[in-house]
Q: What sequence folds into this?
């Protein structure tokens, strides 16, 4: 049975002993973040790593407010959130949908009908405004006050308070497809925030497309400076066409809506690296095996999750940029200030006694590490569509998602590992991976100690390490230029004669299975423990 909303999810956490209700008054400025950070790091390195989910029920300066943190902060809770026994189960279901067995006859075609019907049942459905919980309280005009929400400041050097777990909804101006992404939002005042749309994000592309339309000259040319969404770092890497300036696109608006506090599948869908033509509402329906209920906004032409705790409605004015940051990020360092679009609120709607959902990012492991591991499992079958030789991948938490990817492959020819590296750097968000390590299929990539052993033993550094230049993550503070730098691939596979290695390759040490079985049988009698 799918979780209907955030409250249903909280009840499940409570009943299973995974939630701690905090009655002590806690300040949303730094104190909540420090508590959540300590909880996230509880049991580090053990099977019970992650600490409990936290529901702060007394928030300093916000009477009656409640804040939920660390809801996804363990492997167990991540599985509960997606309602699976193993994260591999989600990947298996996705793989079945992506690569169904082709029917060979009428009977096989009939067998596929239930699966097609199941997928059809996941499409979102629109409900009446009167039945939508997120419409229980509606604020418009001068009544809109973002400062009434218990929004956190998570690190002392942050530029202010940030909304850290928002589901930001936009619409592709070309296709009309809806998109939901998760982008931090710095609060400037009662009715404006920053919108951290890095240039590779779908929402940034939607804004660029609107800019292209607004800035096109009579000759059909576009000011490339005007189509940058993400500030000076991005603008510096583009050129411009004379005759068109940012002023020509000012005044045009793009509708934006933000949901805070949704059911776990809907929240998680906002970070899944899906193709842009697949709406996150469908992904959420697939994950929760029940359609997401949507409702029309009050002041913008967008639809939002009807069961959300809070909905923020508004617009981004095309061409308007403002300094955003610093922000203590998941890299463990502060992201420095840069110019980003500005979100103007036109309405806030919410449930009665709403629950504010937040997270903190910083030095791993934190809550996002478990979310990242789930993304890794879901992303694997998508990678195999293009690179079927991939056996498994590991994105270690310490590699902060985009700095290190370990890949095992079924090696079939000389240079195969380098082909896989190039393929990964061509795969959507994977293009930002700073370091890729490729090992043979018999190496468990989830065992980092085994990977280090194989890598350090199997490489001749000059021969097996390659470098390439290209786009890098906007959060990479070490790159030579913003958004542009080098990446490294390490071929840690066994080397073949066709790769210039003509000496015998040694076997790894391994005890025979029958010996292991005999020792297993006598182990309890040995008194070793």
A:
């Amino acid at each position: 049975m799918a979780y209907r909303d955030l409250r249903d999810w909280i009840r499940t956490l409570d009943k299973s002993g995974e939630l701690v209700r905090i009655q002590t008054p806690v300040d949303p400025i730094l104190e909540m973040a420090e508590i959540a950070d300590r909880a996230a790091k509880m049991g580090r390195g053990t099977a019970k790593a992650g600490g409990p989910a936290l529901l702060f029920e007394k928030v300093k300066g916000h009477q009656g407010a409640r804040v939920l943190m660390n809801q996804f902060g363990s492997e167990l809770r991540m599985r509960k959130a997606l309602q699976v026994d193993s994260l591999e189960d989600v990947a298996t279901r996705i793989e079945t949908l992506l690569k169904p067995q082709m029917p060979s006859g009428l009977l096989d075609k009939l067998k596929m009908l239930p699966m097609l019907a199941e997928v059809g049942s996941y499409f979102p459905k629109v409900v009446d405004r009167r039945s939508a919980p997120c419409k229980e309280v509606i604020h418009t005009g001068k009544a809109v006050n973002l400062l009434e929400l218990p929004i956190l400041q998570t690190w002392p050097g942050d530029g202010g308070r940030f909304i850290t777990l928002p589901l930001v909804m936009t619409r592709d101006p070309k296709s009309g497809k809806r998109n939901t992404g998760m982008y931090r939002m710095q609060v400037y005042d009662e009715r404006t925030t920053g919108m951290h749309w890095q240039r590779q994000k779908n929402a940034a592309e939607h804004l660029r497309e609107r800019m292209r339309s607004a800035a096109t000259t009579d000759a059909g040319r576009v000011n490339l400076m005007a189509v940058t969404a993400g500030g000076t770092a991005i603008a510096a890497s583009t050129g411009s066409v004379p005759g068109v300036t940012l002023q020509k696109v000012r005044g045009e608006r793009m509708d934006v809506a933000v949901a805070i506090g949704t059911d776990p599948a809907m929240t998680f869908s906002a970070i899944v690296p899906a193709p842009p033509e697949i709406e996150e509402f469908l992904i959420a329906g697939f994950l929760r095996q029940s359609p997401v209920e949507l409702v029309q906004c009050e002041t913008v032409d967008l639809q939002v999750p009807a069961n959300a705790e809070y909905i923020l409605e508004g617009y981004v004015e095309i061409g308007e940029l403002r300094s955003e940051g610093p922000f203590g990020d998941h890299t463990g360092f502060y992201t420095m200030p840069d110019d980003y679009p500005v979100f103007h609120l036109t309405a806030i709607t919410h449930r009665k006694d709403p629950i504010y959902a937040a997270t903190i990012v910083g030095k791993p492991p934190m809550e996002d590490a478990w979310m990242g591991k789930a993304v890794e499992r879901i992303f694997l079958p998508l990678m195999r569509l293009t690179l079927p030789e991939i056996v498994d991948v590991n994105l270690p938490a310490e590699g902060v998602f985009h700095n290190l990817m370990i890949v095992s492959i079924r090696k079939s020819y000389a240079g195969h590992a380098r082909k896989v590296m190039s393929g990964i750097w061509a795969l959507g968000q994977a293009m930002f991976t700073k370091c890729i390590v490729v090992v043979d299929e018999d190496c468990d990539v989830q065992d980092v100690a085994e990977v280090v052993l194989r890598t350090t033993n199997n490489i001749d550094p000059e021969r097996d390490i390659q470098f390439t230049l290209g786009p890098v993550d906007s959060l990479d503070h070490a790159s030579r230029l913003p958004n542009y730098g080098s990446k490294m691939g390490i071929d840690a596979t066994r080397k073949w004669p066709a790769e210039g290695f003509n000496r015998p390759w040694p076997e790894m040490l391994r005890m025979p299975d029958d010996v292991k079985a005999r020792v297993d049988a006598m182990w309890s009698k040995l008194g070793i423990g």
Notes: The first strand starts at residue 19 and ends at 22. The domain at 387-513 is CATH 3.40.1670.10 (UbiD C-terminal domain-like).
